[in-house]
Amino acid sequence: MQSLLQNGRKITPKQWKAEIQSLQGGYGSIGKEQAKTTAELAYAGITSYNRKNFERELQNESRQHNKRQNKTKRREEEI
Question: What's the pTM?
Fold first, then answer.
């Protein structure tokens, strides 16, 4: 396309159609690659969320465990 414009030649409708068809031929592979990339980004987002959520749950369990130990310790001191 650039070569047609740079040479100063007039572009015919057949040349436009041929150029459009050649560009459209590449859309299929680009669409597949885009779908693959989108899926990979979604997986990465889900994995990141799950990791953070798992860490949060572990912290909560640890706090609960420490809280129970402190209650037990206080009861023993009262006795």
Answer: 0.54
- Separation in Å, CA 16 to CA 13, 30, 42, 53: 5, 21, 38, 54
DSSP code at position 10 = P
Residue 7 neighbours by CB distance under 10 Å: 7
Contact indicator for 11, 4 with CB cutoff of 8 Å:
yes
**Which residue is associated with the tokens 């006795």?**
79
Contact (Cβ atoms closer than 8 angstroms) between residue 30 and residue 48: no
Amino acid identity, residue 30? I
- Rg over alpha carbons for the chain, rounded to the nearest Å, is 32
Q: Quick one: which of 13, 15, 14 has its CA closest to 1? A: 15
Number of other CB atoms surrounding residue 19 within 10 Å: 13
pLDDT per position as a tens digit, 16-27 = 898 888 888 778
